[in-house]
Amino acid sequence: MDRSEVSLERMRSFVRVAERGNLSAVARELGMGQSSVTRHIRELEHAVGVPLLTRTTRSVTMTEEGRRYYADCVQILRLVERAGDEARSTRGAPAGMVRISCTAAFGVLHVSRLVFAFQDRYPDVSVDLSLTDERIDLVREGVDVALRLGPLAESSMKRKSLGQSRRVLVAAPGYLAERGRPARPQELAHHQGIRMSNIAGSDVLVLQGRRGGRHEVPFAGRLRVDHGLAAREALLAGRGIAPTHLWLVDDLLATGKLERVLADYSPPPVPLNMLIVPERSGVARVRLLVDFLAETIARIPGIEKA
């Protein structure tokens, strides 16, 4: 093979290095050695006749020529992928990889099962499901679709609203038997609260009354966690009262392992959105997964139309 040939494989390596700015991370992602990625970049630069990347010991950035070439490569790779999708559509079988990022607890308890069902319907589609509560850069991490709870900052990503996630106050029967059941929001100040350390302002609990009205009460306790599944375990262990998404505890409420507290009051619901990388939204398998998740997530307990 002519080493100066411009190949799709070399273009893909260049595009991912340009997006991630890290050769070793791209090597792991593509399942090859870092020396192979470096060689792809070097041979591609030799083929086009200009330097595309500037490398230092700490970072990799695009040159001005590299930025223009990157934009063209993205378009070329997108056209190649769509051509493959169209060819496969003649036999009605979408194939390839889709990468999803999802809030951790929601992904473990619900989205993972939806992914299984999607793959049962489309057995030739591979799914990479990444569970994290961090707000990652979708393009940089090579993610196609992300499910996010909470308000969103302005973004160039396509956004699809999936509704609102209803929240409730809950505690274990044993805790309530020992510490008493609060009858008014203000009484929560005398209880142990299980708080989320990764949510700002968790020391004040905001509640909305069923008949209207807004209440802000101090909310403290000896335990803070940064993961929804840890909060679920703390509730089961009788460590206190917590505001939680209904989908996180609906099975425990149904079996009586947890109970509603102050049923006439609830924390405000949280928006649930899907973010889609615009360049990936036209890919058949991505589009199928987006539609499938939008339809099935609406059936999860506590997810309500906005």
UniProtKB/TrEMBL annotation:
Keywords: DNA-binding, Transcription, Transcription regulation
Ribonucleoprotein recorded as keyword: no
Positions of the HTH lysR-type domain: 6-63
Domain of life: Bacteria
Transmembrane region(s): none
InterPro entries: LysR-type_TF_proteobact-type (IPR058163), LysR_HTH_N (IPR000847), LysR_subst-bd (IPR005119), WH-like_DNA-bd_sf (IPR036388), WH_DNA-bd_sf (IPR036390)
Single GO molecular function: DNA-binding transcription factor activity
Family: Belongs to the LysR transcriptional regulatory family.
Function: NodD regulates the expression of the nodABCFE genes which encode other nodulation proteins. NodD is also a negative regulator of its own expression. Binds flavonoids as inducers.
Protein name: LysR family transcriptional regulator
Species in which this protein is naturally found: Bradyrhizobium frederickii
Higher taxonomy: Bacteria, Pseudomonadati, Pseudomonadota, Alphaproteobacteria, Hyphomicrobiales
